[in-house]
Amino acid sequence: MKKRFVWDHDLHIHSRLSSCSNDPGQTPERLLAYAKENGLITLCLTDHYWDSAVPDTSLWYAPQNFEHISQSRPLPLDPEVNFLFGCETELRADLTLGIPDFRFKDFDFVVIPTTHLHMTGHTLSREDAASLEARARLWTERLEGVLNKDLPFRKIGIAHLACPLLSPTKETYATLLDMIPAEDMKRLFAKAASLGVGIELNSADMDFCENDAEAVLRIFRIAKQEGCKFYFASDAHHPDYLPRVKPIFERTIDLLELTEDDKFAIPSKTT
Question: How are beta strands 42-48 and 9-13 bridged, if at all?
């Protein structure tokens, strides 16, 4: 019998340096304490990031460059926790990434979101913003665009593929997810598995209501069927969210029947 998946890591978490956090209590020291409280052996700091070498970013992203997010270093050390330095970059509407090739060596792990469809004019064109059909199409096109790039995929995670920010309203969320063709998912997840990229199980995605459960779980069941490997991500921006994530993750492990064979190979510390 295969061993049940053990939640022992969090590979997507923010500090006060992310503009959408800006919480003085969300420090690397507090994040390390969260890891120790939950018996985690790997933690990766992934503040929002768009490199200054990549032009034409949004006004929101522009201040969050490499120099800004590097203020968290050196990260606090602990013999029980492998504390990695990573980032959450962005994918523009034209499929440009906010991280240039030369920067990958500066990070232990890079989170790439393909589902941030709330930034009209940056990640989403204005003509696509109001259309559920366009947003469902973009789920496929944006994921495919990333997988077609020449990237160091074994140190990359694809973030929150069932992100609520995909949908313009809560009421249309499950409908939109159901509009994504299963055949597209199978094709793209088979490619993701072959590349060795990690597929994220994000606490916000997995904290679904009963009515949305099947629409969300379908995505990750297909990913599992195609051989993808998974990692967990609190995506926490504030300290008061940290106590909520363990029951969400434990439920996810049971619902997807995850075993240790389904676990993404945690990257080594390189920076």
Answer: parallel
Of 103, 115, 33, 28, the closest CA to residue 72 belongs to: 28
239 vs 23: CA distance, rounded Å? 8
d(CA 112, CA 124): 16
pLDDT of residue 1: 86
**Residue 98 dihedral angles phi and psi, to the nearest 5°:** -80, 5
Q: Would the pLDDT of 268 be above 80?
A: no
What Rg, from alpha-carbon coordinates, does the chain have? 17
15 vs 11: CA distance, rounded Å: 13
Do residues 156 and 89 make contact, with C-beta atoms less than 8 angstroms apart?
A: no
Given this model, what pLDDT does residue 271 score?
60
The 10s digit of each residue's pLDDT in 106-139 is 999 999 999 999 999 999 999 998 899 999 999 9
In sequence order, what are the beta bridge partners of 44? 84
User: Which pTM was predicted?
Assistant: 0.97
Residue 119: partners with Cβ closer than 8 Å, 6 or more residues away: 58, 60
Higher confidence at residue 271 or residue 5? 5
CA angle, 182 then 9 then 61, to 5°: 70
The Cα–Cα gap between 1 and 24 comes to: 46
The pair of three-digit structure tokens given for residue 61, joined into one six-digit string = 């992203």
Tell how far CA 32 is from the center of its chain. Answer: 19
Q: In what order do the strands lie in the sheet with 198-202?
A: 9-13, 42-48, 82-88, 109-113, 156-159, 198-202, 229-233
Instruction: Find how far residue 128's CA is from the centre of its chain.
Output: 23
- CA-CA-CA-CA torsion sign (264, 255, 15, 49): positive
State the DSSP code for 5: P
